[in-house]
User: Which sequence fits this backbone?
């Protein structure tokens, strides 16, 4: 039940207010002084406090500050017999919902209480959504327990609490944006904006405008001042995906932001101060681009202070089942289906696939399978025909490899590595061969 705490040293007034407020369906508790009120805040956690400004042991204005320190979500309405502007201003600064005069404003009390409860409910809803969003983008939400992804998450957690620039490397589809968001959520900037931009998605002029904004009149159609992502993300995080595709001229402007914390909008000659954390990502070899003159060396050193490499899906085969079940649950909801099982053959086919598109490709395959499946279990017949032939339980493949010792050995080594989550020492032990022999065979069979 919604609860109101009335704080007043006049017993008759407390009783009168209590009857009026109780008739509106609220639960009412009382306190005659500030000390008792603070105890009630701790023990009962009321949603709204109706408090007299003049109390025996403390000013209601000062009590408002103490209540907010203990319970920020509680809304406080202050009542005074003799209102003055100074007290009213200070009350609002201390976090009061409103400040009204007794007697003349009695008819305002109930509407104010209703509005205060509306604010409490809205704040609670926002807190739940923020918590849910934080959980969605936390490191705990990143799927997988394979050795390489665990190491990446541990490293990400360590750098998240700093303001250091981070460079995420890895193939397309390995989840670099999700990882960048997790770093932001684990940082002290998580209450501010996280803004992502794909540097490969815009031509030079559009990318410059997106990044730095423009002043009215800077070009045809620029009718008003517009902020770029660095201003929008001030005190937050900017994620620059595919930074290797950024034109050299813009790299120089980005370097200025990193070095001085200043930028200039298009058509502007006055610098604007910003405070942002940069997380960049690329699937390309930036050092090679530096050598080829396509990427600034000084910018590379600024963004690559801390590098984290995200492994491709084929190097974390043990995580494929967890991804599959996660995507299955999501697409069940999206398509209003109730598929709760995945056949062993289907999972094995997923594990044998090369996954050039990584997690993104796996997600697309699961969505396709859910759409095609009419039973409660995913089967191999819902897999794409173009690669199911090469994988499908590998019936044809297995028959051919019965006469091909090398093929059979390659298949067996892959299965053992899948079983050990890529642990080569353990795989060599299970295969009963020397570790050096295993490495030689991995090279011979081109197994990564």
Assistant:
């Amino acid at each position: 039940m919604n609860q109101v705490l009335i704080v007043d040293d006049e017993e008759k007034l407390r009783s009168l207010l209590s009857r009026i407020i109780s008739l509106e369906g609220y639960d009412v508790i009382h306190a005659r002084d500030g000390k008792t009120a603070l105890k009630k805040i701790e023990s009962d956690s009321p949603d709204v406090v109706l408090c007299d400004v003049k109390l025996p042991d403390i000013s209601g204005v000062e009590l408002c500050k103490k209540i907010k320190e203990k319970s920020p979500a509680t809304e406080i309405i202050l009542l005074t017999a003799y209102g003055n502007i100074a007290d009213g201003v200070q009350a609002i600064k201390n976090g009061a919902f409103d400040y009204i005069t007794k007697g003349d404003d009695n008819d305002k009390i109930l509407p104010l209480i209703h509005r205060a409860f509306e604010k409490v409910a809205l704040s609670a809803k926002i807190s739940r959504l923020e918590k849910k969003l934080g959980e969605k983008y936390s490191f705990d939400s990143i799927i997988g327990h394979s050795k390489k992804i665990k190491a990446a998450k541990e490293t990400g957690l360590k750098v998240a609490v700093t303001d250091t620039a981070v460079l995420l490397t890895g193939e397309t589809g390995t989840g670099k944006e999700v990882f960048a968001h997790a770093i932001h959520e684990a940082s002290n900037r998580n209450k501010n904006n996280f803004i992502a931009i794909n540097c490969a998605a815009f031509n030079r002029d559009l990318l410059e405008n997106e990044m730095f904004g423009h002043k009215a009149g800077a070009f045809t159609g620029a009718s008003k001042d517009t902020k770029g992502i660095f201003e929008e993300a001030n005190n937050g995080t900017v994620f620059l995906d595919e930074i290797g595709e950024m034109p050299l001229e813009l790299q120089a402007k980005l370097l200025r932001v990193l070095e001085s914390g200043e930028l200039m909008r298009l058509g502007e000659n006055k610098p604007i101060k910003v405070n942002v954390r940069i997380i960049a990502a690329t699937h390309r070899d930036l050092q090679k681009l530096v050598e080829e003159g396509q990427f600034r060396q000084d910018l590379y050193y600024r963004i690559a202070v801390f590098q984290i490499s995200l492994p491709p899906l084929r190097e974390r085969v043990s995580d494929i089942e967890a991804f599959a079940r996660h995507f299955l649950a999501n697409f069940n909801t999206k398509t209003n289906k109730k598929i709760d099982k995945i056949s062993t053959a289907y999972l094995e086919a997923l594990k044998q696939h090369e996954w050039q598109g990584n997690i993104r490709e796996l997600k697309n395959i699961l969505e396709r399978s859910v759409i095609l499946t009419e039973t409660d279990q995913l089967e191999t017949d819902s897999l794409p025909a173009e690669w199911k032939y090469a994988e499908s339980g590998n019936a044809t493949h297995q028959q051919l490899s019965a006469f091909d010792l090398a093929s059979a050995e390659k298949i067996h080594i892959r299965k053992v590595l899948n079983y050990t989550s890529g642990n080569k020492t353990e795989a060599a032990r299970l295969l009963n061969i020397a570790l050096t022999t295993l490495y030689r065979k991995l090279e011979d069979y081109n197994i990564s």
Remarks:
- DSSP finds 20 helices and 14 strands in the chain.
